[in-house]
Each structure stands twice: as C-alpha cells, then as structure tokens.
Amino acid sequence: MPLRRGWATAAVALGCLLAAPANATSGANSNFSININFGGGSSAAESVEDLTVHLPPGLVGDPNSAPLCKVAELNDDDCPGSSRLGTVSSNVSVGLLVPQTVNGDLYNLVPQPGEPARFGIVLRALPLGIGNLVLQSGARLRKDDFGLDSVVTGIPNQQDGIPIHVNSQTLTLFGEAPTGKPFLRNPTSCGTQTTGFSATSHGGESATGESTFSLSGCQSLPFNPK
After folding, report:
1. CA 93 to CA 168: how far, in whole Å?
2. Band of residue 11 on the pLDDT scale cut at 50, 70, 90
3. Which of 25, 56, 185, 204 is deepest in the core (most CB within 10 A)?
4. Which residues, listed in sequence order, are joined to residue 148 by a DSSP beta bridge?
C-alpha cells in the first residue's frame, strides 16, 4: 500500500509538466525544452525506470545534421563535440545526501536497426564517487499520427550499490546542431500542440501526463500545409 500511494503522488506530479519551444513560430528551427517532475516517494521501488516522451506530430529532428557517436564512445564519455544535440539536467538523490543537480549532454548516437534515430545521454560526476550515469534513448514513429516518441528504458535506481532516485529532469534539444545545420524543427501547423508523457516505476506502477503549447506564424510559411 505505501508503494501505491507514493507512485500515485508521482502521477499527480506528472500532470505539472513543461514542454515548449524557445521560438513559438511554426516551422522554426528552435530549441525545445522538456521539464518533468517525478515527485512521489523516494524508495527504490518508486524510482522511475522507463520514460516515454510523446512529441507533438510534426516536431522532427534531422539526425544527418550532426555526426554519429558510437556506443563505446558514449560509454567512455568521448563522443565528438559535433555530435552534441542537447543538454540534460537532473535533480537526483544519491544515498542519504541532500538532492543535487547533475548536468550532462545529449548526443547523436548510432541508431539500432529500424530506428529513425537514437540519443545517448551522459550525466556527469554523480556524488559519492559514483561517476557518470550513461543512458540511451531510442526514437520510434507512432502509427496513429506519425509523431515521434523518445523512449528511455532501464533508468537505474542504484549504481555501485548506492541508491539513486531521480526527482526531476530537464532536457533541451537544439534547434541547430554544432555543425551549423538545422536539427530540430517546430511543427508546421499552428494552434495548440500536445506533448505526452508516460512513466513506469521500478515497482511496476505507471503514470501519465501531458503539456501543451501554442504555435503561430503559419501565414509566413513558404507553403500551405494540408
């Protein structure tokens, strides 16, 4: 019963999310930031294990805008700087320490077969000498509206035997890659856009939420989308 109450709190927190582009113009190459507050309890079972972000239809990135990082390079935190496509900042509780903010980067990773793209995440220098936390996020195409999902699985709730609890996470994807080429592009439709979220805890409990933002400026596009 305590586990179920704790993750129910996280479900409420997942309703208070923020996902929006820095430039709210349709079709613009703009940074896109996502902030997720997991809330809930702090036990190992209540820690988030799997997270899926359902990006709005039409919000797309060009994985060919930057070189690819290999998995071995990601694990060694040796990805080329030109493959960096975003930043990550997480508030984490490690052991019995006061929650701390840990920063890192997101890279253009070699995709697995059948994937349009894959990202590698490195959160650096966790407290108590744990070192880096390395994650991968695969992209997949939704069949109902052809939007993209970003999926992170196997987020650990401990490392080197020390408990880890992710309290919140902020992810920013770049509108322009370090190569100078456009990476992320806003949807070309105007009006309200919805970003969805779903998460599962290590205890098997699930929560969902969504965040909306508005785009304008369709009259300035060089074409009239239908």
Report:
1. 10
2. very low
3. 56
4. 141
- Give 220's pLDDT tier (boundaries 50, 70, 90): confident
Asked if residues 215 and 190 have their Cβ atoms less than 8 Å apart, the reply is yes
| DSSP structure class, residue 161 | T
Q: Specify the amino acid at residue 222.
A: P
pLDDT digits (tens, 9 = 90+) for 82-131: 999 999 999 988 888 888 899 999 999 999 999 999 999 999 988 878 88
Token pair for 144: 């109902």
Q: What is the signed CA dihedral for 190, 221, 35, 4, rounded to 10 degrees? A: 40
Q: Please tell me whether residue 63 adopts helix, strand or coil conformation.
A: helix
Question: How far apart are the C-alpha atoms of 29 and 135, rounded to whole Å?
Answer: 26
- Please give the C-alpha separations between residue 139 and each of 13, 55, 112, 120, in angstroms, as whole numbers: 24, 10, 10, 11
Cα 158 from Cα 166, distance rounded (Å): 10
C-alpha span between 208 and 199 (Å, rounded): 6
- Measured CA to CA, the distance from residue 105 to residue 149 in angstroms comes to 19
Instruction: Flag whether the pTM goes above 0.85.
Output: yes
Tokens 């060009």 locate to 62
108-131 CB burial, b ≥16 within 10 A, e <16: bbbeeeeeebbbbbbbeebeeebe
Tokens at residue 21, please? Answer: 């582009």
Compute the radius of gyration of the chain from its Cα atoms. Answer: 18
Is 75 strand, coil or helix?
Answer: helix
